[in-house]
Amino acid sequence: MNGVVEVVAGIVWRDGRFLAVERPQGKPQAGFWEFPGGKVERGESLEDALVRELREELDLTPTDMELWQEKRHDYEHISVRLHFFHVHAHSGAVVPHEGHAWRWFVPGETGDVPFLAADTEIVDELARWANAKRS
Ligand SMILES: Nc1nc2c([nH]c(=O)n2[C@H]2C[C@H](O)[C@@H](COP(=O)(O)OP(=O)(O)OP(=O)(O)O)O2)c(=O)[nH]1
User: Fold this and answer.
1) What is the pLDDT of residues 40-93, one digit of tens each?
2) What is the rounded CA–CA span in Å between residue 33 and residue 20?
3) Which residue CA neighbors atom 21 of ligand 1 most closely?
4) Which of 52, 62, 75, 105 is the most buried (most CB within 10 A)?
């Protein structure tokens, strides 16, 4: 394995819901859900990578984004350093260019949807955070 791959992931918010996409057939871990994003290219800033990936995948352009947390995760086939951003505002409506299934989720209401291993903690954290805000 060649080192750790830098990955950006956007938690895109709209009306109190966040966006998640299903990894399409043909990609490693197809069928698992994740936050839209992908690998950072050489020489690219994290923000530029996020904007590029969200445009490529979904036709969305983040206009207000904030780096939230970073974590490393070792899968069997790859080690990643994930940079999670909150995307508070964006332009465009979702157009899944790469054939992704996608959904807006109420935090805490993701049911049995299988998220990538590195993302389950994040999804749980969003649920706790939304709960605390409600109470
Ligand atoms: N996009 C994204 N990737 C994630 C998340 N959580 C997580 O563990 N990953 C992992 C899955 C992959 O191993 C890696 C991202 O690679 P990718 O295959 O989606 O990236 P990409 O679209 O740039 O890849 P490529 O097909 O061009 O190689 O990070 C997440 O929330 N979003």
Assistant:
1) 999 999 999 999 999 999 999 999 999 999 999 999 999 999 999 999 999 999
2) 6
3) 38
4) 62
The residue range of the domain holding 32 is: 4-134
ipTM of the complex: 0.94
50: its two tokens = 């996020």
Cα 22 to middle of ligand 1, angstroms? 11
Pocket of ligand 1 (CB under 6 A): 7, 9, 27, 34-35, 37-39, 73, 78, 80, 82, 116, 118-119
| Nearest Cα residue to 82 out of 35, 31, 114, 129 | 35
CATH code: domain of residue 120: 3.90.79.10
Residue written as token pair 């964006």: 90
pLDDT band at residue 135 under the 50/70/90 scheme: confident
Please give the distance, rounded to the nearest whole angstrom, from the Cα atom of residue 116 to the centre of ligand 1.
10
pTM equals 0.95
